[in-house]
Amino acid sequence: MVMKQFLLAFAAAVLWSSVVSAQTPDFAYYNLSLIWPATFCFSAPRNCISPIPKIFTINNGLWPTLQNGTQVPPYDPAESNCNYSPVAPADIVNAVAPIKTRLQTKWPNLLNGGSNELFWQVEWGGQGMCSDYPQDPLTYFTINLNLAENSKYDPLKALGVQPSSTTAYPISILLANVKRNVGFYPQISCIIQGSNKLYLREVRFCFRRAKPPTQLQDCPTTMDYVCSSVPAAQQSVIFPPPPATISGHDVSWELLASA
Ligand SMILES: *[C@@H]1O[C@H](CO)[C@@H](O)[C@H](O)[C@H]1NC(C)=O
Ligand SMILES: *[C@@H]1O[C@H](CO)[C@@H](O)[C@H](O)[C@H]1NC(C)=O
Hints:
The chain is an alpha+beta fold and 259 residues long. The N and C termini lie far apart (90 Å). It is globular and about 50 Å long. The longest helix is centred in the N-terminal third of the chain and has 20 residues, at 2-21. It contains nine helices and nine strands. The structure holds 2-acetamido-2-deoxy-beta-D-glucopyranose (2 copies). One 2-acetamido-2-deoxy-beta-D-glucopyranose binds at residues 31, 33, 60, 63, 65, 69, 187, 204, 206, 219-221.
């Protein structure tokens, strides 16, 4: 009898620990990555939607991240590594239908012929399922839009400079501008083109974990590895203007600049 009770208690403890291990990891902040389509679409050879958006769009939605910058890995059904039975990616398309127009504008798949729905499913699988909204994709996508559409976090304002095909802006100045304008340091990400020229690819904001996240914090690192791969004296980025659209077609600013 005692043995049986002991075994039952043991079984309950094992069951409980497996439930606990499926709880959301103890992440500290969410990282929201806003991409500059003109840079993304210029980095060769890209075939982008036309016209190329002239606003920053969401590339990676709110991504649960530990305080030391380690990203919570995507949901793994074999391990139930974060939340318990989150909504499956296949089931989110209907769920987000009420905000589809907003998503199409602010969270498009920039690749020509790429499916928006597939992109959103990948985003859900990568970050949403391990967020604090595993059962509620509509809320997860809505809070991403609410932050990304808030003019306070519009990099076009926060960076404090205008796009230019001729000026290279020191990253340190851009970081200082964002700090002054929104109160906290973002992370800037770059691509390298040609002879070691850096282009501004993304501005990432780190929001303290909350339901919903609203309060920024400093990102633990202010440049990605590409920006920091060049010597400090060369850490300046080109922030290219969006291409001109002439009779429905994008005209590369590079061609314009070299004309
Ligand atoms: C970050 O923290 C986690 C959890 O404490 C740890 O497993 C991981 O090794 C740390 N990563 C780095 C780069 O310090
Ligand atoms: C933010 O997310 C991107 C992926 O979108 C990742 O490469 C980067 O390391 C993250 N940065 C921070 C500060 O968490």
